[in-house]
Amino acid sequence: MNKDNNWWMRPCGGLDVLRQAVPLIISGGSISLMNFTDRMFLMWSGADAMTASMSGGMLFWTAVAIPQATAALVTTFVAQYHGSGNDQRIGRIVWQGIWFGFAMMPILLLLYEPLTKVFALFGHDSALIELERTYYFYMLLGSGAFISGEAAASFFRGLGKMRIDMYNTMCCVALNIFLDYCLIFGQFGFPCWGIAGAAIATAFSQWVRFSIYVLLMFVQERRAHKFHIIHGMRLDFPLIGRLCYYGIPSGLYTFIDTLTFTAFILMIGGIGQVQRSATTIAFTLNSFTFIPLNGIGIAVTSMVGNQLGKNRPDWARRVTVTALLIGGVYAGCFGLAFLACPNLFLSVFATYAKPEEFVAVRELSIVLLRFIALYLFFDGSLVIFMSTLRGAGDTIFLAWLVGILSPLFPIFCAVGVYFGLGVLWCWTVLTLYVFIYCFCLWLRYRSNVWESIRVIEKELI
User: Fold this and answer.
1) Model confidence over 111-143: pLDDT tens digits?
2) What's 4's DSSP letter?
3) Cα–Cα distance between 313 and 299 in angstroms, integer?
4) What average pLDDT does the chain have?
5) How far is C-alpha 310 from the geometric centre of its chain's CA atoms?
6) What is the C-alpha separation between 432 and 430, in angstroms, rounded?
7) From CA 215, how far away is CA 275, in angstroms rounded?
């Protein structure tokens, strides 16, 4: 049989995509487990602590969105350099992303006070605000590692060495979960720091993860002698400028998208305790699908960039179609599970919660899981289309799209809340928003414009 006619064995077919995606799915699944465990521990220590970790965490991801997405676009550069046979440029672009991440950390710390005023604007009570501020501050101590770690991870992702990413992430997730238990509850001689301990555990684990990536980069260079890891350490302002030119629009996309969902979380947080607890639980469970799907997206970005570096847009398109099928099956299985046995997923949150308080939270969480089951397939497809465009470097379109669509989401939610339509109205708007977003990205994918875009220098193509 001709391999080109065999969906599984052909280049950029099922086997190729899964080879790249499965390690990242496992990495994403381990991060989901970390988030789940983190919030479960905090739920046991108090519902407000769990809610504060969600809202404080969302504000953190909003603050780091632009620099982190900019650093993550190093994957596209590495993939296109590697695909075009210019491996000697890889070390330099990776280090520019790392220096960029270090430079952003003091700026983020300076913005701590003005940004945390947003909690009061959404009507959160003083006790909840104090918890949110605490969580956000200690997460900021890991911001340099979060951002520079994306650039360092891009070295391996762009080369298709996804297993290294998987093993490193899994080890650091295990460390994070252990430190969560120790620092939240004061076990094994560690101090009992509650929500501060949860954030410190995450920040410390990220610095460990970043350090391991850098160490492994030098090991890889010693073996291959072609990536110029040592010589590439010096600052290259034209290359940083090129990274920012393509990366900042990608960062704006992530920033506005994250800001939109942060506004959504904070808005529901002002409605009531039951609504914010149920929403936090629903999104935590949703992360079991979204974060692994994001792992598939990273693989798509790398593979599309590599094929475009080789001037094979037909194979780049094949990567996308294959990933859509894999992601659709994955999302469909979780959607059915959320519909068929929601209590199984919710039981762990109830373990040490007060039974009389958790009854209403459980009932609303079941309803919210039905919303998630409804939009999961479209959410997964959205990630794949977006990753294809990022792999090409079509980031300016992404920034325009999110700038037009995203403001409408919180506006419609706020109107509904003002007129007393409550949390179910907000989730209905969210579901429609995902449908429309997915449709717009599909139209861009169908246009073929992205196939002619490259982020690397023209003379290297």
Assistant:
1) 999 998 888 887 788 888 899 999 999 999 999
2) G
3) 16
4) 88
5) 28
6) 6
7) 45
Q: Is 305 exposed, middle or buried (0-12, 13-18, 19+ CB in 10 A)?
A: buried
Per the CB < 8 A criterion, the answer to whether 268 and 426 are in contact is: yes
pLDDT at 354 over 90: no
Residues 262, 62 contacting (CB under 8 angstroms) = yes
Position with higher pLDDT, 343 vs 39: 343
Q: Name the residue among 401, 371, 284, 208 with its Cα closest to residue 31.
A: 284
The pLDDT tens digits of the residues spanning 178-207 come to: 999 999 999 998 999 989 999 999 999 999
| Dihedral sign of CA atoms 240, 114, 143, 40 in order | negative
Mean pLDDT of 347-362: 74
Using the predicted structure, report yes or no on whether residue 439 has a pLDDT greater than 70. yes
Dihedral sign of CA atoms 23, 102, 69, 247 in order: negative
Query: What one-character DSSP code corresponds to residue 302?
Result: H
- Report whether 281 contacts 371 (CB < 8 A): no
pLDDT confidence bin for 370, thresholds 50/70/90: very high
Per-residue pLDDT at 378: 93
In this structure, what token pair is assigned to residue 166? 């998987």
User: Helices 237-269 and 47-72, interaxial angle, to 10°?
Assistant: 160
- What is the chain's length? 461
> Is the per-residue pLDDT at 53 higher than 80?
yes
Alpha carbon distance 35, 205 (integer Å): 13
For the record, the structure tokens of 26 come out as: 């496992």
DSSP string, 228-295: -TTGGGS--HHHHHHHHHHHHHHHHHHHHHHHHHHHHHHHHHTT-HHHHHHHHHHHHHHHHHHHHHHH
CA neighbor of 378 nearest in space, from 445, 310, 312, 431: 431
The C-alpha R_g of the chain, in whole angstroms, comes to: 22
**Can you read off the two tokens belonging to residue 253?**
């996309």
Largest CA distance in the chain: 68
Q: How far does CA 441 lie from the centroid of its chain?
A: 18
- What tokens were used for 272? 């009531």
**Token code pair at residue 256:** 């506005």
Residue 21 contacts residue 323 (beta carbons within 8 Å): yes
- State the Cα–Cα distance between residues 404 and 400, nearest whole angstrom: 6
